[in-house]
Specification:
- There is one protein chain.
- The protein has 2 domains: 166 residues, NADH Oxidase, CATH 3.40.109; 59 residues, no CATH class.
- It contains 14 helices and 6 strands.
- It starts with a helix and ends in a 6-residue tail after the last helix.
- Bound molecules: flavin mononucleotide.
- The site of flavin mononucleotide has 12 residues, from strand 4.
């Protein structure tokens, strides 16, 4: 399969076979992470490999109980790492203060995701599947404590990897034309915006299960792995809040705006604890 087809058919995979990934394959995944582009080629990145039952269980707990984190045979913790660089600068009688420089931070976070996406693509080409877990950002303190992560290092993203047991068929995306602008930014009008998202998600129909299959696949996937009855809970919440459309579903049920804004404080505190003084 050529690279275009491979990348077009990639889906986030959340249900994995109980099968180990050979060490030689893991080495290749790490090679492409390390070979990724990096701003100034500074490489402010560390990757913690988690394969143990204990580590996976802990990560699942820290990710808000997402069951695939416990069942994936391998999870990589992508850490933004200024510890190594700071020490090196010090040893060389100079000063690196990425922990206080927004520009260094933003570039380092981009570096981290670029490296992780290299892993995603190679994994896909080797018959593996993967899923990012961003919610680890809510639990930076405990993740740092459990994995003995030092100051100036932030665990920012998980990538769960394994052989797929099942692969989701399709996930709605905006039409390409919606995100592409020719030379100058085209400010979309209300009608264009409404149409773009209607075409992406379709209406919230009466058959909530069918709707969730399109809009919130994770809920259905979680129920396949557990007896959590996650879908039932989401459906109840949708009824309680009288959800009428996909935006209400996203920002009242999945990512409630108040909760997301309240998280700022927690994330800021975690950054401070790790020695970062940016926000
Ligand atoms: C930054 C980032 C964070 C994500 N966090 C999670 C997560 O916490 N849990 C999860 O199940 N999927 C997570 N995903 C996967 C998305 O849900 C998925 O990419 C999206 O639904 C589109 O599906 P696709 O990857 O199959 O195209 C994340 C993806 C990205 C890029």
């Amino acid at each position: 399969m050529n690279l275009y087809d491979l990348m077009m058919k990639r889906r986030s995979v959340r249900i994995f076979k109980d099968r180990k990934i050979p060490e030689s394959v893991i080495e290749q995944l790490l090679d492409v992470a390390n070979q990724a582009p990096s701003g100034g080629n500074i490489q402010p990145l560390s990757i913690i490999l988690v394969r143990s039952h204990e580590g996976r269980k802990k990560l699942a707990e820290l990710s808000g109980g997402q069951p695939w984190v416990a069942t994936a045979p391998l999870t990589m913790i992508f850490c933004l790492d200024f510890y190594r660089i700071k020490k090196w600068a010090e040893l060389c009688q100079t000063d690196f203060r990425g922990e206080g420089a927004l520009n260094h931070f933003l570039i380092a976070y981009a570096d981290l995701m670029v490296a992780a996406q290299n892993v995603v693509i190679l994994a896909e080409s080797l018959g593996l599947g993967s899923v990012y877990i961003g919610s680890i950002q809510h639990e930076i303190d405990e993740t740092r404590a459990f994995f003995e992560i030092p100051e100036y290092v932030l665990p920012m993203m998980l990538l769960c990897i394994g052989y797929p047991q099942s692969i989701p068929q399709s996930v709605p995306k905006l039409k390409k034309e919606v995100i592409v602008h020719d030379e100058k930014y085209h400010r979309p009008n209300e009608e264009e915006i409404r149409r773009a998202f209607d075409e992406k998600y379709g209406p919230v129909d009466r058959n909530l299960e069918k709707y969730l299959e399109r809009a919130f696949l994770e809920a259905l996937e979680a129920d396949k792995l557990e007896t959590s009855k996650y879908v039932e809970r989401v459906k109840k919440e949708m009824k309680r809040l009288d959800i009428q459309n996909s935006a209400q579903f996203l920002f009242k049920v999945r990512y409630p705006t108040k909760v997301m804004v309240r998280l700022n404080h927690r994330i800021r505190q975690s950054f401070k604890k790790a020695g970062f003084d940016i926000f």
